[in-house]
Structure formats: C-alpha cells, structure tokens
Prior knowledge:
Distance between the termini: 34 Å
Low-confidence stretches: 1-31, 179-183
Structural class: alpha+beta
Mean pLDDT: 82
Number of domains: 1
Helix content: 10-25%
Shape: globular
Order of helices and strands: EEHEEEEHEEEH
Strand content: 35-45%
CATH class: Alpha Beta
CATH superfamily: Nucleoside Triphosphate Pyrophosphohydrolase
Amino acid sequence: MECVLEVTSRNPAxxxxxxxxxxxxxxxxxxxxxxxxxxKIPLVGVGALIVNDNKVALVRRANEPSRGQWSIPGGLVxxxxxxxxxxxxxxxxxxxxxVRPKFLVELLDRxxxxxxxxxxxxxxxxxxxxxxxxxxxxAGSDASAAAWVNLSELSDFxxxxxxxxxxxxxxxxxxxxxxxxxx
Length: 183
C-alpha cells in the first residue's frame, strides 16, 4: 500500500496517513543520496514507541545497523520533513500501522563503532510515544518481522539497553500524565 500524509493544520495530532494510488511517502530519491555508514555528520532519525492495549509494537531490523535485533520502528528523517511526519511515515512503512505521535519520550544519540574504533554509524534520534489510529501490524520495508509485545515479555526480545530505557521511560511519562499506572 502506498500512502501520503495529509496535513490539515500545524498540530501533530491532526496529521493523518491516507491511501493514495501512485504516491509514495518513502522519499527514496532523497534517502538514496545519504551515506549512512561512515557518514561525515550525524544523521537525524525518529523512533515510534507504538502502544496499543498496553502492548508495544516491535520490529526485527532487516538492515544494518542492528540487523536481526528487535527494536521500536523508526528511521531517518527526509529533507524538509517534520519530526512528527517522519514518525508517521516510518511507523507506517515498517509496521503498516497508522499512528498519531503524542509526545517526545527521548532525544538521544546512537553511535556504533567498528573494530578499529572509528564511528561506523551515528544517529541522533527523537523517539515519540504514539497511539494507533488505524492499520494492521505487519512487517514492512526495513523490518523482517513485527510483533505486539506485552511489557512482561520485553526481556524475551533481547532489546538494546537504550531501547528498553526508552520504552520504560515512555510508560513512566504516560502513567505520570494519567496519574495512574497502566494495568
């Protein structure tokens, strides 16, 4: 399915993804010009902490870095794309889910070094708490698998420490906002 973002206001809560034949939101032409490995500058990316019924959407990475590892969906921001729009696009591309970013959970660096100590990958990531507004969970473009995971099962997925930290911080922020713990 191809999609396009419809922006009806400057409020991220009003962003929607709709099906449109022949229009791709992926921005492949822009991303093809980006050198991810051994880049000269850090690259800006987003993560989507997608939560539904107290379950987290996880994807197994199909590409480096972290190929084969489970993580939250995410990817690079396209030139001229806002962070909320990038979250919506990446979530859809990797999971088939239509989401609404609600709040920023974490802004962080992910730096990967090679055997010689050189920086192989450097990402600056903005991870957002997202609610599901449509779609069905399935592995998409950069994911080899996708799953809804209960909080109690997260340790079974061998998540990177930073990913686990973001998930737990997101739930703490969400519960603090509501004033009561999730069940």
